């Protein structure tokens, strides 16, 4: 007797609660005896299903069709491909259903039939959301159903041009055992929906839940079966939403779509940089700009810092939107330049955006030094560079693209690593200083202000 993992295929002679290979719980099931024997016998291919030269295959059937939402199409690689299955995962309340209802309505406006299957909400609840975001269309068909067999029957009878399943964990098949959302049920539901989508050439979007670790709930096999896996991210206290492609058979996986969550639904943000800048025209101490990259897109972000006297005990370190570990490292480096190490420190980003890229290290350093000295930086200054433990400023990729984005928003001063401008086209309206260390950068941007 042997047991195999339904997620990764690991085999064990005894049952285990947790798979040693993929670390999934409750996935080891009893395997059929004599697994080494080959049961499938060779048989001739039916007519019309024989191998053909690749030059004779019609490629026009796999061309992407735009959905009307620019940022959504940007991440998918141009739009939805007939027969493609997209898995959209995200935390509860981030706006997955609202985004897909808007996609369904825009598709329905182009004289296409759309079938929207909801298993989490009633039809009346979805109708109310559709009214709020302006997504009421006659050719948008709505069904509140959790039985896989009924859904497959609807696909056959309605023959939709787009299928949306919200969500794959709520559907269940009566032909297999297990509770809805379990490994067995999710595998069966996904296989049935994907088979129907491929056979009928219907682009399909599946909504997926995520676990506490941030991964897609259900068997890992689910991500392998679908064509595109997208992650919808965002802080519920912020308006910004980011759509990332984790897997994409039809386009790049380094594209990011930006959306703005409003009272009337979710809107595309072709130029999101303005969300992350303060509205004040005066340059206050403790503020510095940087340019981070989300996928291929550069975004100007404002870093703000506050340094205050400690009331005794261990100094406080509070961060929001930045990596606390990197801020701690930067404070250790800055302790050789300023006395910021013994003070309470608060670092945050404007607009609620999360910055994890090392290219923002220099901006964090300059904002902290500015706050500690209570002196403003040069007006509209951007700092781009990674900080090493020795205090050296390191180069970052795509510097020319970052400087161009900063110049487009009116930034006129920049500080980068020494030698970073080699083979980089500097915008004519921008003055860029190259610095080798953090100490040198702090002296460049602060010393004229302090001495005056």
Automatic annotation (TrEMBL):
Keyword DNA damage: yes
Renumbered ranges of motif RadA KNRFG motif: 247-251
PANTHER family named among the record's database cross-references: DNA REPAIR PROTEIN RADA, DNA REPAIR PROTEIN RADA-LIKE PROTEIN
Low complexity bias: start-end ranges: 43-53
The keyword DNA repair is annotated on this UniProt entry: yes
Region (Disordered): 40-59
Recorded name of the encoding gene: radA
RecA family profile domain boundaries: 61-210
Family: Belongs to the RecA family. RadA subfamily.
Binding site for ATP: 90-97
Organism: Brevibacterium daeguense
Pfam families (UniProt xref): AAA_25, Zn_ribbon_LapB
Residue numbers spanned by region Lon-protease-like: 344-452
Keywords, in A-Z order: ATP-binding, DNA damage, DNA repair, DNA-binding, Hydrolase, Metal-binding, Nucleotide-binding, Stress response, Zinc, Zinc-finger
Name recorded for this polypeptide: DNA repair protein RadA
Function according to Swiss-Prot or TrEMBL: Plays a role in repairing double-strand DNA breaks, probably involving stabilizing or processing branched DNA or blocked replication forks. DNA-dependent ATPase involved in processing of recombination intermediates, plays a role in repairing DNA breaks. Stimulates the branch migration of RecA-mediated strand transfer reactions, allowing the 3' invading strand to extend heteroduplex DNA faster. Binds ssDNA in the presence of ADP but not other nucleotides, has ATPase activity that is stimulated by ssDNA and various branched DNA structures, but inhibited by SSB. Does not have RecA's homology-searching function.
Family matches, as HAMAP family: RadA_bact (MF_01498)
Record note on domains: The middle region has homology to RecA with ATPase motifs including the RadA KNRFG motif, while the C-terminus is homologous to Lon protease.
């Amino acid at each position: 007797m042997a047991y195999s993992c339904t997620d990764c295929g690991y085999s064990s002679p005894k049952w285990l609660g947790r798979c040693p290979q993929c670390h999934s719980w409750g996935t080891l099931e009893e395997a059929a005896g004599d697994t080494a024997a080959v049961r499938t016998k060779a048989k001739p291919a039916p007519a019309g299903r024989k191998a053909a030269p690749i030059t004779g295959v019609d490629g026009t059937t796999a061309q992407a069709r735009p959905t009307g939402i620019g940022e959504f199409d940007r991440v998918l690689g141009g739009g939805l491909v007939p027969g493609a299955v997209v898995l959209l995962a995200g935390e509860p309340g981030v706006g997955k259903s609202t985004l897909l209802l808007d996609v369904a309505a825009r598709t329905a406006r182009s004289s296409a039939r759309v079938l929207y299957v909801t298993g989490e909400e009633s039809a009346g609840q979805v109708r109310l959301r559709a009214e709020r975001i302006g997504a009421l269309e006659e050719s948008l068909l709505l069904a509140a159903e959790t039985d896989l067999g009924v859904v497959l029957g609807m696909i056959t009878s309605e023959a939709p041009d787009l299928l949306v399943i919200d969500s794959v964990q709520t559907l269940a098949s009566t032909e297999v055992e297990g509770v809805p959302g379990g490994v067995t049920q999710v595998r069966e539901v996904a296989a049935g929906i994907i088979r129907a989508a491929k056979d009928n050439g219907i682009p399909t979007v599946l909504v997926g839940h995520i676990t506490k670790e941030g991964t897609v709930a259900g068997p890992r096999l689910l991500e392998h079966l679908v064509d595109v896996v997208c992650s919808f991210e965002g802080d519920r206290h912020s308006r910004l939403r980011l759509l990332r492609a984790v897997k994409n058979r039809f386009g790049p996986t380094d594209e990011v779509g930006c959306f703005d969550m409003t009272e009337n639904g979710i809107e595309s943000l072709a130029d999101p940089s303005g969300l992350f800048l303060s509205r004040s025209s005066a340059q206050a101490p403790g503020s510095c700009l940087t340019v981070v990259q989300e996928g291929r897109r550069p975004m100007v972000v404002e870093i703000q810092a506050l340094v205050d006297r400690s009331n005794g005990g261990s100094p406080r370190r509070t961060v929001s939107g930045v990596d606390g570990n990197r801020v701690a490292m930067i404070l250790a480096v800055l302790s050789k330049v300023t006395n910021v190490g013994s003070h309470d420190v608060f670092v945050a980003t404007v607009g609620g955006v999360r910055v994890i890229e090392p290219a923002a290290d220099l901006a964090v350093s300059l904002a902290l030094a500015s706050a500690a000295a209570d002196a403003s930086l040069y007006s509209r200054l951007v700092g781009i560079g990674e900080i090493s433990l020795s205090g050296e400023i390191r180069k970052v990729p795509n510097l020319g693209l970052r400087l161009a984005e900063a110049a487009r928003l009116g930034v006129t001063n920049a500080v980068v690593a020494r030698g970073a401008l080699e083979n980089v086209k500097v915008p004519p309206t921008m003055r860029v200083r190259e610095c080798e260390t953090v100490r040198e950068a702090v002296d460049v941007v602060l010393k004229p202000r302090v001495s005056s």
